[in-house]
Design goal:
alpha+beta
Length: 196
């Protein structure tokens, strides 16, 4: 995928408190939303399907991120305070579902497990960042912010595509670690190393 197809709708890299965060209504969008909690925690409430009567709630903590699929009715609430990094991506053709486009892209085909990882995501999926998601996410958001404020140069399109692909590689690694159960083995390895 590249800049000519995926466009950013929303970019946020902001610390909030309960008083400064003003989301009071459920909403949904046609974009794929990635929310990274850099500090603090948030309460995510959502409806798994349009026919659900009872919403589900999860808490997303520091150094965790969630992927919200297009069309999911949801609301986020700040518990006390939280620094959220948010990116909403959609295909430039509104009739092309973003998650399906990403799953079928040439880039994703280079990573054998990535297509199924995207297609098998729940409507809201939460992952712990044990890779480099936060750093790459921050670089991408800074690049996009600078571009929106007239501070980009001739290299913007190249960096946009590189950072976006790098972000998805790090996300796929986190998805695979959670899916394969390697997360616990990784923690055990680190703890055994520290105890030596």
């Amino acid at each position: 995928f590249s800049r000519t197809y995926l466009i950013c709708i929303i970019i946020i890299n902001t610390p909030y408190t309960r008083e400064t965060y003003d989301m009071t209504n459920y909403h949904k969008h046609e974009s794929l939303e990635i929310v990274y909690i850099a500090s603090g925690s948030i309460q995510m409430t959502y409806f798994k399907s349009a026919s659900d009567i009872q919403p589900r709630s999860i808490t997303v903590h520091e150094n965790q991120f969630m992927i919200i699929r297009p069309g999911v009715k949801h609301i986020q609430c700040i518990q006390d305070k939280a620094h959220m990094m948010v990116l909403e991506l959609r295909h430039d053709n509104l009739h092309v579902p973003t998650d399906i486009f990403i799953a079928n892209s040439e880039f994703v085909s280079l990573i054998p497990s990535a297509k199924q990882a995207i297609l098998n995501l729940d409507c809201v999926s939460v992952f712990t960042d044990i890779q480099d998601v936060k750093r790459i996410f921050g670089k991408l958001l800074t690049l996009l912010y600078n571009n929106q404020h007239g501070k980009s140069d001739e290299y913007f399109a190249v960096y946009y595509e590189l950072y976006l692909k790098q972000l998805f590689v790090e996300i796929f690694k986190c998805i695979n670690i959670k899916r394969d159960g390697n997360y616990n083995r990784y923690i055990q390895y680190v703890l055994s190393f520290i105890q030596k």
